[in-house]
Amino acid sequence: MISFACRSAYLFLLSLILISSALAKPATITPNDIYDERVGAYAFTNATIQISPEKKLTNATLLIRDGKIVKVGSNIKVPADTASYDMTGRYIYAGLIELDSAYGLPDAADRSEYSWSAAEVTQSQTPGAYNANQAIKSSFNAADHFSHDKDTAEKYRALGFGAVLTHQHDGLARGTGALVSLGNEYDQELIIKTGASAHYSLDKGSSEQTYPRSAMGYMAVLRQTYYDADWYSKQKNPDFIDLSLQAWTANQKLPQIFDASKDWLTVLRADTVGDEFKTQYVIRSAGDAYQRLEAIAETGATLIVPVNFPQAIDVSDPLQTDEIALADMLHWELAPTNPGALSSRGIPFAITSAAESPEKTFWKNLRKAIKHGLSEERALAALTTEPAKILGVENQLGQIKAGAIANFIITSTELFDDNMVIEENWINGRRYKLAEHQPDLSGQYQLTVNQQNYPLEINSTGGKHSASLALYDKDDSDNKNPKVNFSYSPEQILISFAMNEDSLPIRLSGIPANNSWSGKGQLADGQWITWNARRTGDVEQDTDATSDETDLALGNVVYPFTAYGTQSQPAQQNLLLKNATVWTNEDEGILENADVWIRNGKIAAVGKNLTAAGANQYDASGMHVTSGIIDEHSHIALSAVNDVATNSSMVRMNDVINSEDINIYRNLSGGVTAGQLLHGSANPIGGQSALIKYRWGATPEQMKIEGADGFIKFALGENVKRSSNSKSVRYPQTRMGVEQVFRDSFSRAQAYQKAGKNKRRDLAMDTISEIINGERFITCHSYVQSEINMLMKVAEDYDFNVNTFTHILEGYKVADKMAAHGVGGSTFSDWWAYKWEVRYAIPYNAALMSQAGVTVAINSDDREMARRLNQEAAKSIKYGGMSEEEAWKMVTLNPAKLLHLDDRMGSIKKGKDADIVVWNDNPLSIYAIADMTLVDGRIYYSRTKDLEARTQVQQERMRLINKLHQANANGDKASHKPKPQPDWHCDSLHGYEHLTGAKQ
Amino acid sequence: MKTTIQALITILICNVLLLTPIWAVTPEPAPLTGNKVAITGATLHTVSNGMIENGILTFENGKITGVYQAGGVDISGYQTINAEGQHVYPGFIMPDSQLGLVEVDALRHTRDFRERGDLNPSVRTLTSFNTDSELIPTMRFNGILIAQIAPIGGLVSGTSSIVQLDAWNWEDAALKIDDGVHINWPAKSYYKYDDTSDSIVLEPNKSYADDRSQLTTLFKDAAVNQDSSNLKLKALAGVYDGSQTLYLYANKPNTIIEAVTLLKQAGVKRLVLKTGAGALLATEILQQHNIPVIIDTLHNLPGQDHHDIDQVFRLPQELQAHGIRVGLSNNSWLMSTRNLAFNAGSAVAYGMSKEQALRMITLSNAEILGIADRVGSLEVGKDATLFISKGDALDMRGQQLTTAWIEGRQIELEAMQQELFQRFSKKYR
User: Fold this and answer.
1) Domain range B92-375, CATH class
2) How far from A384 is each of A380, A381, A408, A582, CA to CA, in Å?
3) Is A957 on the interface with B (CB under 8 A)?
4) CB B178 within 8 A of CB B244
5) Given CB atoms, is A116 within the 8 Å cutoff of chain B?
6) Is the whole-model pTM more than 0.90?
7) CB B321 within 8 Å of CB B280
8) Which of A306, A478, B131, B312 is the most buried (most CB within 10 A)?
9) Are residues A717 and A820 both part of a single domain?
10) Which residue range is the domain that position A521 belongs to?
11) Mean pLDDT in each 10-residue stretch from start to end of chain B (429 residues)?
């Protein structure tokens, strides 16, 4: 009731405003007045008119009528019924168009925070016949909910915008946007276009449903919805109604706009989804696309980019400055180059004003972007024609041409001039005056007050005037010229001043007339006097003021965009490692004084006294050469690890590879060259794995191992039954239920495969089908013997084998059964005691499973331990007396076997990938460190290069810190907002548990 | 015939021993036999006096009686242990551990290391220390024979004690009772995860000023109220006369500087800093007040992306280079505590000498904990708390304990984990 009352009062107020401005109103509305309709015909003469980003007319005339542009050009005759405005010295541009806004829409609901200790919400909480996933809000139409918002409209207008695309920023599918006008009119008139666009994101918004809650889950839900909508739309008589799917299908014909404003990784993810469904999204990106320009260009997407450049980080405390990431400092420096870089690369884009305080930063940053390489033409296009093109409204908006909506701005100077003032913003043929036109009054004047003369100097910049009495020379440091308070309008001039701090003021009022000013004033004693002023000459130009303060010496973009990133990928080596101890992992065993030849990314030869034409020789005497370590179970280089759904087999870790993780580099420094990036262990059926090589600096796509088999994470035990969460409601809650989940999935997948062509495509069932068809392989998180045995029996009942048990801490108890089943074990060396189900975990597990004939790997599941996997393997020498050669295979050849990569990785053999580590000692020793790590024959890490890189990192940091300090001194200063890297484990929800968990 | 019977009896006894489910409970504490023991032929890592190859070490009644170079030493009447080719080390000392205060991290029922409230100086770990913890044998198996049992949490976590790891009960275990009080200096900001934006945000700690004032006021009041009936004040008496150490946890340079300055001003005599790489930028104040450091773990990542990849591995050396005494813990996870020696080994990989690395986890830790008169080196008069390893005990390739003694009592090294190994090893033979 209250909101209704407010709205009524508001409409009443609005009607007052509208009636006073007396233009056409919706014909259906009856005024509470007599009719007052006018044609609204105006001519703007003698103007400089930028009719399009490319074309400028000088001394031109613009005619508008009834909210539309009638004509623009030179030598236009102004019709008799048209009122004229003289625009001499002024500029006219098309009104700007904002594409990312929620203008005039109700706020999206807040979502209650999800944590591991909250009850899961397994179903959508939205009442009604909507999609089963609450984050699919495709039936929301912005036009249905839009209502004029005077304050926000005014803010947009002040920036020069005339139209805005508004949509609700809530959900993975957000429904349609409405293109609306930013005037103060009836809502009915403001909407230019309903259903102007369809919107998507990788952010669940207000959805309370637990699934999805990760980027990979968001992508999976969008994919499923594409299939569902297609299937649903083909049903002749659907047996249920899904309004969201109906809307989804209807929305497909609109411009598809995807909000990926988190970072450029999200842009690539959005595009991946689009590619699968032959949809090219327009993508709203963050301002960081310059960090991966090529990958962004390859998406083929038109972007919507912000100009919300970061403020300079406060570097006053050197101890705290050490906590500022190089990436944050470099982004501060390079963010202004983003629009220019996109433009140079030929990536089409529109610019959005979305930012924390656009009123303070938008124009300043646009000019900054132009100083950093964006052309004025492209800048204007990004604010006018590009957005119009994206929405398919080129005939209505974005240019000044006949037939278009009369949206334009009048400015005091050229648009991107430092002193530009937007004086008027005309929207739909209505005038919104923003600033009084201020002529350039700069000059020397003689001011005569009461017969006494004063030399007056006026300077005009950016529509503002400053005045002083020019009594002394400017260089005179002893005497300062008295300031004069001065304001100007054609109706009144005000001047007041005092000769010095101690004297009393003289106050004058006058009007401009006949090239001079005159009027009356009052002296300090109350006496009324007359005064006049006349211009006597120009102001002396201040030569210093024109110097450009922007320091355009910039740092380089490095890949990844972090410390130790490089400008280009290292070259493939033609390299002969001489006289090393070579751990072949083949029948030859460990060769002393042997050579390894690396060429074209492969091992070209292994043996003694090799000669290799053209190869660089590397004296490796005293060193040990091994194949690269392969981490069967890792969570580095990921943007998410767990989604939460009993069966999350539709999510793909390949979707969320994070190439920017410093831990890739740190792993390389520990000799790790490849890994299986696993989904977490929150669900009995987890997500599909990503198999990557640690190609530091490559894009997520380039890191993937070409042609690798598909794997999937399963999980058993305490995590999947949510034991640590007393509020958990999700099925299953016991190990008994876990078995049922598996049997149910496999049975359903069998039925699914037999179902007819018209079946609903189900991505989870697709994945499970792959498993039972032997096309995808299970790595199963497991602890106690009962559950291990159970999964093997379930698999056998469905005629396939489990590929690998990971963790597998009680594997030693059923190792004979594992060997018989043919499953491998990838375990920790010595973890135990952290929860109940690991009570009988023993460090002899690897040795015992190995003894029973199981292929055993030692894995990390931990970004720190991952770089010491060689040492973890060595623990089986202490615990169980394993031979050194066998121990070493547990982190190289055996994981390669478990990942089906042993035909190309895992040993030093001619023809295999040159994923090679040179160690300074026996690699199993605690004293060994990697001297050099190669992937595909490229040296991604070497101790020597690392030591050089440290110096470079330090120099680059200091360059940036010094520059930041300068910016701080100039008033650009914001406290540091660190963005630490997540630390992912099997049981991570968001990866920041190590930071938020209270150690203290 | 006689030999056959003896052999049979031996086999029988062995079998009985093997069949006995010794893992059902933790191993029985060893008795002190009063035997005079001589270990011969081994490399003695004395720590205090270098390495003696082919040395002889003797002990009696729980105390070391001789550390010799072989030759000319009469060891008749001694139970002789030939350790040729092996290595003798003083028992490793683990500072700042929750051993015996928790059995299974994830189970609240088993957690006894953190009392509620902010100011708990009087809360003592000793009386909760569970000598029957199943984790204890896993420590001994890796050479850790002594540990400081410390509380965590709050601003003043409580009072620690130092124990030896073979005892019937906590009274017997105590090596140094109530050796020190452990505090956490409040941080000025903390990280908060924002679920809505899926991002981590650094937020100012709103209770920072309060926390800091709680601490400073407590130390101000305790300085002049040592006979008070207030247990909290009374528990701090020792930090002013130096009979107790104040263990400060802080790992940001600014926090370290602030905390040390204020605690020194408050009159704290013996201050020890528990820290990580954050101490690197606060070395001056540590040097100035001669404050030793216990590094929490070396198996840790660099603090920031731009930090050297070996920053933490090199940390002990870097601090030593500034004249700071360095001890080493490994307390990130209780289960991993047993890898203390390999932490020390990691420092060697990045340039520290093996002797220095070994010293960190023996004599330096003993000195910092104030127990160097009893343990930490192979020296005449010190406790016979030591072990024999087949190889280099800092390297997993070499560490293989064959025998260990605590105060002269030969302890059982094997326990549940070894028993399970043997059981299944036999099954898969």
Assistant:
1) alpha beta
2) 6, 5, 10, 64
3) yes
4) yes
5) no
6) yes
7) no
8) B312
9) yes
10) 458-538
11) 46 44 73 90 97 96 94 90 97 98 93 96 98 97 98 97 98 98 93 83 91 95 87 95 96 95 96 96 97 97 96 98 97 94 98 97 98 98 98 97 97 96 94
